[in-house]
Structures are given as structure tokens and as C-alpha cells.
Amino acid sequence: MVEEKRNKPGDSNRITREYMDSLLLEMRHLDGKLPVTEMKLYGETFATPVMTAALSHLNNVHETGMAGLAEGAHLAGAVNWAGMGDEEELERITATGARTIKIIKPYEDNDYIISRIRHAEKCGVLAVGMDMDHAFSWKGTYDNVCGMQMKAKSLEELKEFVKATKLPFIVKGVLSETDAYKCLEAGVQGIVVSHHHGIMDYAVPPLKILPSIAKVIQKQIPVFVDCCIESGADVLKALALGADAVCVGRALMGPLGEKGPEGVREKIESITEELAGMMAHTGCADLAHIDPEIIWNR
């Protein structure tokens, strides 16, 4: 079934992977320096711009599930993201010490959304947010996820969610300049450029639209990217095109399943080492000095 989807002309993940692989990098060695991969986010410092994605339901991958993913991120000095899950799971996640961003689904019941924000605050998360792109099903109806009804949110509703917390509020699933402008108007403090791993066929690759969205944002808030990020080269391309950090999801699931939290730590650190190597070869001393001109299109 996975292979059938991948071979479909409109498979957004295949399109995204092919576009990412089409981007080339020039080398710059003169006046080169050893690179620094440290990232500052929401007043805190992390060892890497490589973060976990907002995954969910990982108990079938490893017995530690989402808490294991979080522990691995914490060991690697990385930001952890958490997707759909109950309150007890979030408590286990934050108990690992991982600085976590909690993403909440666009539930039909806004009061329930506010209650999840309140619980996340009590757990001491770094930020909260919503994956706005998960409102609709493939059939054009509102989605139902694990028995929970979803519903698209208006700009005014988004403003209310932003006002409901003192934490940074992030919108995941921004894949247009139109939504980027609306996010700024709503006062969000971060966006994730993403098509939710192919939630729609023929979606524009995140890295293709990223420069346009970054131009809208103009560094007013952090811009994150996910979908098909697998290597240090992928990370460097995303950062060069306007991202402040990236989210890695499926590339961490295998290591989690094989070695638990230690596998996650090793994989994040490996991708970060690859990033450092690519930065060294392209004359990028730190994250603030990654030049978009190193990117070449075929």
C-alpha cells in the first residue's frame, strides 16, 4: 500500500523528496571556520536545529513510545515536539526533562482545545500550537481522528487561541503566503511550513515555497520546516532557504524502535554532525551565517 501511494503521480512525499534532492550546494573553503550548530529558541539554547517532529502514537514502535522519543531528544540537546496524545502521556513526556512543544489538533470543541492548552502549561512545555492542516478528510468533510471530531478554524478563532496562553503559540501546516500573512495578523509566534507528510496530493514541496513564506515573515517569528527531512544536507538546504530549524519524524522512528531513547539521541546527533560537515564545506560558521546563495537549482 505504501509503495502504491509512493508511485502515484500526485504523491506529495515523493514530489517533496525529488525537489529536495534537486537542490545542489556550492563549496566555500577559503576563510573557513569550524561550524557551530547551537540554536537559540524562545529564550533558551539548544545544541542543534534538528528537532523531533510532532509525532503521535509510538507505543507500537517502542515500549517507551512518545516519552522515549522525548528522552532521546533531551539527551541530544534538541527540542522535542509532541502531537496527539492524552494528558498522562504529555506528563510522561515532560517528565523526561525534554523541552517540548505541544501541538493540539483542531478539535471541533474550542473549550476542549483551551483545556489542552491549560494542561500543557501546567506541564511546563516550551510552547503550544495547532496543526491547522488536519481539519479536513480526504473526502472534503471535517476529519475525525481517533473518534475526535475536527473542524477548520477561522482567523478570529486563531487569535483567541493565541490570547489564551502566555506561551508562544505555533501554527503547523502553513504552505502558502496567504496563511503566513494571517498567522502574523493573529499574533502567532512560530509557524511550521509543512504538508503534514502528504495530507494533500500535489502539495508544493515545503522547501520550494519556503523562501516566499520567509519573505512574508521577515524574521519576525521563527519559521520551522518538516516533511522528508532525513540528513544534514536536507537540514542545511532548509536553513539556507529561510528556516530557523527543522523537524525530523520518520527518520527517528527506526532508531527509536531499535534502540529506544539512545537510538533517537544517536540519530539526532548523527544528522547534526552531517549538518556541521556540510556547513564547514559551504563556509557557514554558524546558523546565523548560512548564506542562501549556496543553493543551486539544477
Would you report the number of β strands? Answer: 14
Between the first and last Cα atoms, what is the distance in angstroms? Answer: 32 Å
Derived structural class: alpha/beta
Please write the string of helix (H) and strand (E) elements.
HHEEEEHEHEHEEEHEHEHEHEHHE
Described by the principal axes of the CA atoms, the overall outline is globular
Major β-sheet annotation? 8 strands, parallel
Helical coverage, percent range: 40-55%
Side by side, the strands of the main sheet go 4-13-12-11-10-7-6-5
What is the radius of gyration computed over CA atoms, rounded to a whole number of angstroms?
18 Å
Mean pLDDT: 96
Oligomer: single chain
**What's the helix count?**
11
Strand content: 15-25%
The parts where pLDDT drops under 50 for at least 5 residues are none
Provide structural commentary.
- With 298 residues, this protein is an alpha/beta fold.
- 41% of the residues lie in helices and 16% in strands.
- It has 11 helices and 14 strands.
- The strands form 4 sheets. It has an 8-stranded parallel sheet.
- β5 (80-82), α4 (87-95) and β6 form a beta-alpha-beta unit.
- α3 (65-75) crosses α11 (261-281) and α7 (177-186) packs across α8.
- The radius of gyration is 18 Å and the shape is globular.
- The two termini are 32 Å apart.
- 48% of the residues are buried.
- The model has no long low-confidence stretch (mean pLDDT 96).
